């Protein structure tokens, strides 16, 4: 090979790499593949290079899948033979590290107790991703045990991955528990990442890092192969640079899985959905959020009004006094029952086989597992009496019915198309001693009711992103998707993501 040939080859590879680094959406990547300006191998390598360069500053990614390049090569070979794997052909995806995958990577939930939890099994959502042609790029950091260990924890911290930092200001918190997933997308470590949510764990980090995300409705996406917190509320959902991409990924993920009895063959309910140029929007109060967030929200409402939409200020009229105490009881109960089951079925290399053993492990490894905060939530969960099933069912029925009623009544009593609210206030300063400093959240009602919750990155406060929540009516996912798109286009995305 001559010197000129080598230089030419290097130049081609540089162009491929530069092109790959500028790609953020599924459509952009697929157009580049079809125009042959890059390929899956180069795109995947470009993301790996970016992670290796920037991740030490952010701790968003725990592990890169060592098979990622081989996955990409296989897809390039497929395309060379005029075949297309599916709607996510050659799209790298990062997974929150409570989602199991085939291969050599452990699934840790951020805990050193699970550092050897190599199940070599794909979660149901990972199978769906692979079937659609996606490349499993690696595992993202998270709040340890999905933020269900200590009442005073710092979101985005785990013993395995350390403290994840906000994509827009490393002194600020990324929220959680899907911290690494949101930061990774915001930093363009991958075009797509999956998170999980029990109450706010997808929507909050997406909001404070300035990306799109969907917390799906209950039963829409399987949790099989995901380390559980609570089967009553756990969901898996996508994060991306556009609403279109989150919807495309969600369409891949959703569907019935017999190993997750909550799931069903998902069919969108769009019988009463008609085309609309203007919407009747119900705006929930913003008084629990920071003053600057309230001011931004008012500007957003005015922009929607100026675009011709009707905006009505609405409030929850149902009595929610018992809701959050009931939720906490259900989560404590579910976690004890379900983490005991999960741990008892981990590989033999994992020595921690129960919640009680986990609590003991943390105590025995205090310097590495509990350098900043404790495990009061775990001990409260361990104290729950699992034999009191009558109380459990009574509380579960009550709290779910109340949350559903509260959402249904918002729509029925106000004659509106869609409900909106700020998702959460801007990111707070990370504090490993005192823990998180939340100012307002819109996650709990849709999380408990099991309805769809979308967050759109539509503005900034002091150069920090603030998301707008789209809260769907019960069983009205298609309306939420459609109206979220209208609102997103009306407000326009003006949250600049870091390069």
TrEMBL record:
- In terms of superkingdom, the source organism counts as Bacteria
Show the InterPro entries listed in the entry. Answer: Amidase_dom, AS_sf
User: Which Pfam families does this entry report, sorted A to Z?
Assistant: Amidase
Task: List keywords of the entry alphabetically.
Answer: Signal
Q: Would the keyword Chaperone turn up in this protein's UniProt record?
A: no
- Domain Amidase per the UniProt entry, residue ranges: 43-478
Signal peptide interval: 1-20
Tell me which stretches of the chain form a coiled coil: none
Name of protein: Amidase
> What's the source species for this entry?
Pseudoalteromonas carrageenovora IAM 12662
> According to the entry, what is the taxonomic lineage of the organism?
Bacteria, Pseudomonadati, Pseudomonadota, Gammaproteobacteria, Alteromonadales
Gene behind this protein: gatA
